[in-house]
Structure formats: C-alpha cells, structure tokens
Design a protein that fits this description.
Elements: H1 14-34, E1 53-54, E2 77-80, E3 95-100, E4 107-112, H2 126-130, H3 144-151, H4 161-168, H5 173-189, H6 193-200, H7 216-237, H8 254-267, E5 278-279, E6 286-288, E7 295-298, H9 311-324, H10 339-352, E8 356-360, H11 363-377, E9 382-386, H12 391-400, E10 403-407, H13 412-420, E11 428-433, H14 445-455, E12 457-462, H15 477-480, H16 483-488, H17 500-503, E13 506-510, E14 520-524, H18 526-535, H19 537-540, H20 547-562, H21 565-583, E15 596-599, H22 603-617, E16 619-620, E17 623-624, E18 635-638, H23 646-663, H24 668-673, H25 694-697, H26 718-727, H27 739-745
Parallel strand pairs: 7-16, 9-10, 9-11, 11-12, 12-13
Antiparallel strand pairs: 1-3, 2-4, 3-4, 5-6, 6-7, 8-14, 13-14, 15-18, 17-18
EC number: 2.3.1.37
Domain Aminotransferase class I/classII large: 299-656
GO molecular function, one term: pyridoxal phosphate binding
C-alpha cells in the first residue's frame, strides 16, 4: 500500500479530514462514555503515522452529526475493532484515515467522498500537517460542521477559509508561510518605496555604505530572504540540516513546538526585545547602546539611588576582590560560607530589627524558597496571596503545594471574608508586597497585620521595591509607617514594640535595586531563618554569592542607613516628574510611591513609543506588557533617580509629549471619556497621598535636597562613608582607601 505522506494528495478537502479526525477522537470518547456505549478506552497519546493513511472506498461523505449516534445512515465516522474493519479498496479515489489509539485496541476510520471543486484544493502535504496534528489550538475550538463550512468558503487570500485559518494558527502557520515569507523578503528588499517610508519616518542612513538604492534594512531583508529561500529549497530537496538532531524518526518535533510558542508571543505583541543598554558608572544615569559613541539617558533602571556607582560600594568591592578573589568557591554548606556573608546577614537583621536574616542569590529565589518551604512544612497550610503578587511569590506558593487563596488587590474586605472561611487554628500565611513595582500602589500593611492577628495568620511582606527607599534607615515601608519612632532609635537594632515592622513576621528584600548590587534575603525570627536555612533547596543547593558582592552590599546598606539624602531627592524628583506629566495631560497611573507608570493601553503602541524615545530622543524607557501587566494596561515605567539633572527631567517631559503627539496616544482626558483604565480617568478615583510627607522630605524646615544642575556631581555624605567603611575594616584591611580619607590624614 502506498504511503500518501510522501507526496501531494489530490483530495481537495484533505485538511478538513485531518483536522476533524484529530478532534473527533476525543469527542467520540467523551460521548460514548456519556451514553453508555462500547466503553472505548481513554485515548492517551495519539500518534499520526504516514503509514496509517490508505486509499479506500470514496462513497462516504463527511459526517457532522452527534458522535454518539454512529448508526446514522450518513455517518462516515466509525469506531470498530480492527478485525471488523473492511479492507481498503486499491482502486478508490477518496481517503480513509486509520488512527490507532493507545493501547491499540481500536481504529478510528474517517472517510471522505471525492469532489472536483477546485476552490477547495488542499495546499498542504501530509508530512507538513503531521507535525501539528497533536497540538493544534484552532482545532480544539472547532466543530466538524464549522470546519467543513470553512473548507467550502473562499477567502481574500485566494485559498479557502480553512486554509486561511490554518495560516493564522501558531502551529500550522509557520510551515505554511515559509515559502511566502521568502518571496516577501525578496520583494521588499529591493523596493524603492522602502526609501520613501524611511524618509517619512525620519530614519536616515549613509547611501555610500550600502548598494545604491538600498537602505540597511532592505539589505538585511535581502540577506534574510536568501537564508529563508535556502531553507525552503533544502527542505524541498531533502538536503537541509536540522538545527538539532531528532531523537527518532516520527518523534515529537521539538523545534517546531518552540517556534510555535514564540510565534504566539509575536502575534499577541508580548514578545520581549532586550535592548543593548550599557550603564556607565562615571556618567550615571547615562548609558551607551551597542555603539559606544551612542549615549542615552536611562529612565527605567531599578538602580533607584545610583548605589551601583557609589564610591564606597566600588572601593569595598575592589578591596574584597584583592583579598578574597572573585568567587565564593561553593555552597554555603561547602566552602562558600565566609565572614563577609555572615556580616551581611547581621547587617540585614539589624536593618529590619529582626533576630536573623538569610542571604540568597536573588529575591526571586528567596521568595520562592521561603514560601515553598513554609507552605510544605506547616501542616494543612493555607496561603492567602494578593492577586498582584510577583511571579516569585506565585511560584513559591505553587511549589509548596499548599492551598492557595487569592484575594483582590489591597482589598481588606475580600481578604477578611476569605480568612473567615478557614478555621483559626489552621496555619495561614498572608503574602503581599509593600510597593507593587508596575503600578506603584502600596499595601495597607498595618491593616494586614490586624487581620493576621485576628485570624491566626503570619505575614510575609515583600519589600523588594521599598528597601533603601523608605524609612529613616531605608528598611522599607513598614519602617516608614512609624517614621518618628524609628528615627529616634535609628542607632539601635532592637525592635520598636508593636510598630508595624515589629508586627511583620517575615520580610524579604533585594540587594539588586536600591542597594545597587545583586542578591536577595529574608529577615525574621531566629527559628524561622534556621528552618529555611535547613530545608530550602533554593538556599542549600546553590553557590553562594561572591565575597565582593556581599561586601559591596553591606557597604551600600550601611551607607543608606546613615544617609537619607538620596531617597529624599529621589522622591522629590518623582514628584516633579509626575506633576509636569499631569500638566501635559499625560496619563500616569496614580500611586503614592516612587514609580511613574505612564499608561499607553496597547502593546504595539507601547513598544513603538519606547523605540521612538530611544531612537529619536536618546531616552531609554522600557515598555511593559503582558504578562507583567494585564492586556490593555500596557505602559512605560519611569523611575527617576537622585542622579537625574533638571535638564534631563525637562528633556524627558518634552520628549514624552512629542511621542504622545506623534503616535496619537490617549491622554488622561481621553481615558476619562471612555471610563478610565488602570486607575487613570476612572470615576471617583482618589489620588493617594505620597508615602513621604513634606516634613519627612525636609520641605517644611528647608533641609530638602535640590535636583542636580547639569554638570554637578551627585552629593555624597562623608560621615556615611566613614560608617560604611568601618563596618568592614577588620575584614578588608588591604589596598588603598577612598580619596577623602587620604586627604584628611595628610
């Protein structure tokens, strides 16, 4: 019997047959179970094999009835034991699909009558379709009748509507489009209209650097066309090299699956492009792009205070490199537990006024490891999670296998209603963040503590975007809520009784944002920290942070504990940016924190705005899209720093205004007209008061720092530098000290 999988098939509705067969196997199984049929075994992995396509009688039309009524006269879809299946006719012009099901006890036979209607001509080979038959998203949402209707309907592309749908499918589309893509590349590459398009978009290029009449983009398109065409030709000739070796013939096509998943991201505009941005310590907050001569202002870094270039941090890291080398040498349990690691954990415990702290390679790992460990160890634990929690917390809860209850964002009434449904003696964790990074919203931390105490829960507070930024010593929002009490006792590591920070059971934070280095940590009771240290795989089985990193982190924390000037100026610059944007009707998601989320509301437009700011205005602001924010809430996330000058602020504001005009993006008044989105223009929305009040910023007594003027250096506090250096003197007594100390000793 000839295998049809190696040649074009002359059946006009081949695609319909194969799609229906794939769906019908599951439909028939489900229906037979419901109607007490023959007890068809559960279909496990369905494999499509070219050898299972054979010629047979052409006289059965496609059946579109209830799959349970297999005795219907018009039925062409039958389930039968192999022994009862009629032998195929060697002279037929139609097709029969024999699809064996695991464990091989049944055969699904689907037959199609022949037709000569040319507009239904199938354009696919069986070999191409086999790659998609196990995982076609479109198929799962289609009925046989709808597929047949599509197959008999024309489309604007010239192919039938079913083929057009297949082209849109992320699984089938890439293979169908391969030849047309190659032709499209070739047609665009030499098109003179490309030049006109670039002129309209104000994109210039050097005509002497490329062939006459060709722009660099067209030249790149020509090269891509050549590569694509070679791939198509090689595939047709059977001589192409596979990008990776397949395990066995007929096995799962991994590369096609990878491509299909990526195609989904491209199609919904959520695919992420990583810009080549190289921040320069000496020119903070300026960076260069892939070209070292091309400099841009960075307005979206999480290096909130510029501590990555602070002299005390750099000097400390250099000295630790000289003395202890580049790497830790192992896990914390095996050769990687040094005095610098222990000193950093003592510093962090003192910062949050807790009994202990534990350092991780990142706060993602810290959150994941801590929640997964606690959730799995506490008997019958239930974890209550804010719906806007970070992915690291979500992953930790998932890994714990504990019961998860999601409550509405910052909604105390919803949280309490859900806490009431769980017995008080059941272990419970309320997991939430202080500052939510993409909206800038701030949690009602004190009220969360009230609910936790009332219903017998412990609190897990992520202060990742708050440490270094809030509070008199930079311990976060929990410290800031009792600002006066903590400021008065800022030199003590003892907790302020019944303060909000004291009432929080577990605090997690990062060393990679306001502190300018890398790493994460938890702080809490001594026994809690020891439990996580002893049981968390994310801590036990990974190499510890390098000595230079933990030393630099401790220097950064110690400096910020002594000096409020950086975070005060950051807050003042944030207020300034928000105020000027509001004056231009540019929509900013209202919040009380240091985050400036500019709402765009469309993934493609958000990326285009980001690209335009970079290419035309030399400003880098990253666009944020799904899944980081919900679809429709896409935005530009701006984070002012104390290092931004007044001139850079002015340039940002005028550039954003220009981009909003050029792309015709919705202003705040436009969002008001459509009912609002993401808190912008929503009726009865109250703009929250900033976490930092005027008195804390020094606006009332005249001590507030001033935004830098062009050419002015970032202010450093010598007293804070001395304190930070003193922390590590006994461990890093090698190499030169900072210049200010050298000058003082002369």
């Amino acid at each position: 019997m000839e295998e049809l999988g190696v040649q074009d098939v002359g059946c006009p509705d081949l695609l319909t047959v194969l799609l229906i067969a794939h769906q019908k196997t599951e439909e028939v199984y489900s229906s037979r179970r419901r109607h007490g049929g023959h007890g068809l075994r559960r279909l496990r992995k369905v494999r499509w094999r070219a050898s299972e396509y054979v010629e047979t009688a052409p006289n059965w039309p496609i059946w579109a009835g209830d799959p349970a009524r297999v005795s219907q006269p018009q039925a062409a879809y039958n389930i039968s034991h192999p022994a009862n299946h009629p032998p195929p006719s060697p002279h037929s012009s139609g097709l029969s699909l024999l699809l064996k099901t695991a464990p091989g006890s049944w055969i699904v036979s689907l037959n199609l009558e022949n037709t000569t209607d040319s507009k239904h001509k199938a354009i696919m080979k069986v070999t191409s379709l086999l790659r998609y038959s196990r995982a076609c998203p479109f198929l799962g949402h289609s009925t046989p009748s709808s597929l047949r209707t599509l197959a008999s309907t024309g489309s604007s592309t010239g192919a039938n509507a079913l083929t057009a749908k297949a082209i849109e499918c992320p699984m089938m589309g890439p293979r169908l489009a391969s030849k047309s893509q190659a032709r499209a590349y070739a047609s665009v590459a030499g098109n003179r209209e490309v030049e006109e398009i670039h002129k309209q978009k104000d994109i210039n290029f050097d005509p002497t650097g490329t062939p006459a009449g060709k722009c660099p983009h067209a030249k790149a398109a020509q090269q891509a066309a050549s590569v694509a065409q070679q791939a198509v030709n090689a595939k047709a000739a059977g001589k192409g090299k596979a990008p990776v070796a397949r395990n066995t013939a007929g096995g799962f096509d991994y590369e096609t699956f990878y491509q299909a998943e990526l195609d989904k991201k491209h199609k919904d505009k959520s695919y992420r492009y990583f810009n080549n941005i190289n921040r320069m310590a000496a020119k903070f907050p300026v960076a260069h792009t892939a070209k070292t001569s091309e400099e841009v202002d960075v307005w979206c870094s999480n290096d909130y205070l510029g501590m990555s270039k602070n002299p005390i941090v750099l000097d400390t890291m250099r000295r630790s490199l000289n003395k202890y080398g580049a790497g830790a040498g192992g896990t914390r349990n095996i050769a990687g537990n040094g005095a610098l690691h222990l000193a950093l954990e003592d510093e962090l415990a003192g910062l949050h006024r807790k009994q202990g702290a534990l350092v991780f390679s990142s706060c993602y790992v810290a959150n994941d490891a801590t929640l997964s460990t606690l959730g799995s160890k506490l008997p019958g634990c239930v974890i209550f999670s804010d719906q806007m929690n970070h992915a690291s917390m979500i992953q930790g809860i998932r890994h714990s296998t504990a019961k998860k209850v999601i409550f509405k964002h910052n909604d105390l009434a919803d949280l309490e209603a859900k806490l009431q449904a769980v017995p008080k003696d059941t272990p419970k964790i309320i997991a939430f963040e202080s500052v939510y990074s993409m909206s800038g919203s701030v949690a009602p931390i004190e009220a969360m503590c009230d609910l936790a105490e009332k219903y017998g829960a412990i609190t897990f507070l992520d202060e990742v975007h708050a440490v270094g930024m809030y509070g008199p010593t930079g311990a976060g929002v929990a410290e800031h809520l009792d600002f006066t009490a903590h400021y008065a006792t800022r030199d003590s590591a003892e907790p302020v009784p019944r303060s909000v920070m004291d009432r929080i059971d577990i605090i997690t934070g990062t060393l990679g944002k306001a502190y300018g280095v890398v790493g994460g940590y938890i702080a809490g009771s001594a026994d809690l920290v020891d439990l996580v240290r002893s049981y968390a795989p994310g801590f036990i089985f990974t190499t510890s942070l390098p000595p230079s990193v933990v030393a630099g982190a401790q220097a950064s924390i110690a400096y910020q504990r002594e000096y409020m000037g950086d975070r005060r100026l950051q807050q003042l610059n944030t207020r300034n940016v928000k105020s000027q944007l509001k004056g231009l009707d540019i929509p900013v998601v209202p919040n009380p924190s240091h985050i400036v989320p500019v709402l765009v509301g469309d993934a493609a437009l958000a990326k285009e705005a980001s690209d335009m700011l970079l290419a035309k205005h030399h400003i880098y602001v990253q666009s944020i899209n799904y899944p980081t924010v919900p679809v429709g809430d896409e935005r530009l996330r701006i984070t002012p720093t104390p290092g931004h000058t007044a001139e850079q602020v002015e340039h940002l504001i005028t550039s954003l205004d220009s981009v909003f005009n050029e792309l015709d993006l919705k202003r705040e008044s436009d969002w008001v007209a459509v009912g609002g989105r993401a808190g912008v223009g929503c009726p009865n929305t109250k703009v929250p008061e900033p976490v930092w009040n005027d008195a804390q910023l020094g606006l009332e007594d005249g001590s507030a720092p001033v935004t830098l003027a062009q050419g002015k250096e970032h202010v450093l506090l010598p007293e804070a530098i001395k304190v930070a250096e003193k922390r590590l003197t006994h461990l890093l007594d090698v190499g030169p000290r900072l210049s200010h100390e050298a000058s003082e000793s002369q």
